Amino acid sequence: MTFERIAIVGAGAWGCALANVIARSGRAVLLAARNRAGADVLVHRRESPRLPSVRLHDHVGIAPLSEDVGRYDAILLAVPSQHLREAATVIAPTLAKGTPVIACAKGIERGTHKFMTEVIAESARAARPAILSGPSFAEDVARGLPAAVTLAARDDKLSVALAHLLGSALFRPYHSTDVRGVEIGGAAKNVLAIAAGIVAGRGLGASAAAALVTRGFAELFRFGKAFGARQETLTGLSGLGDLILTCSSAQSRNYSFGLALGRGRPPAVPESGGKLAEGVFTAPALIEMAKEKGIEMPIASAVVAILSGRLSVDEATETLLTRPFRAES
């Protein structure tokens, strides 16, 4: 498989970082901003407002999103999860049958409970959906610092080809066919990162933080297994690896949002520092899906209760701490 013309939809921090990754390997790449104003800013400044001081590589072309982007050989959708359907719909009319379309968002669509590759399959029927996820901060990747992620597609040959397309010495995609496992790890860890931020913001200590991440992973694992994810995926880069990263650093938008909640910010604000916290939108969908399968997720449920205003941070914490004693599982 050869991919000569590559496009990235979404000119935020992650889209710009991925554009630099591809350009450094010597390939030309188009970065398609979702509106003309955003494209004009990038053309003029050669850097994203979301990634100040990180210059776009000279091999990165810039244009506003249009249906012409669908004519490219491979397309990465680096837009927020709740806007992924809209982006896929724009490129669908010109998409050649079998074109790889890679979701680079971590979330579950509100209302439909669809994972990102399902949204692509519904909105752009000619596409071959894939998912890119793992422990990686946009600024690190954009600057050329080492990172490893997981790239999954149903077809093993496609996942291998896409891993080679995006891979380099400093950006290492491990290929997989466990699409669902990769999607679940990315979506669930964002919700748990909010909880970890709350623990830190409330000053509950390192011991509580370690307990939160460990028991949070148990919830992620139960959810993943119920929806058909493989154990090695959930314990790998896109599961446990991403959870560790986002539950331990203020670079994580979700952790930062939780940190602000723990320090008393009202829960109705869906952004942190002007950056979208995906877990705010994923949390209700995650819990609704868990209830349908009878999966117990007390930490994620507490996050939903705080976000909805049903419980304060202190009340939610007390609810978790006074749960009946039980065997570890």
Structure commentary:
The protein has 329 residues and is of the alpha/beta class. The protein has 14 helices and 10 strands. The protein has helices at 13-24, 36-45, 84-91, 116-123, 138-142, 156-166, 179-201, 206-226, 231-234, 237-246, 253-262, 279-293, 298-308, 313-321; strands at 6-9, 29-33, 60-64, 74-77, 99-103, 127-133, 147-153, 171-176, 271-272, 275-276. The strands form 2 sheets. An 8-stranded mixed sheet has the order 3-2-1-4-5-6-7-8, with helices on both faces. The protein has a two-stranded antiparallel sheet with strand order 9-10. Helix 7 (179-201) runs parallel beside helix 10, helix 7 packs across helix 12 (279-293) and helix 13 (298-308) runs antiparallel to helix 14 (313-321). The relative contact order is 0.10. The model has no long low-confidence stretch (mean pLDDT 93).
Secondary-structure topology with pairs:
Layout (H helix, E strand, L loop, with lengths): L5 E4 L3 H12 L4 E5 L2 H10 L14 E5 L9 E4 L6 H8 L7 E5 L12 H8 L3 E7 L4 H5 L4 E7 L2 H11 L4 E6 L2 H23 L4 H21 L4 H4 L2 H10 L6 H10 L8 E2 L2 E2 L2 H15 L4 H11 L4 H9 L8
Helix pairs in contact: 3-4, 7-8, 7-10, 7-11, 7-12, 7-13, 12-13, 13-14
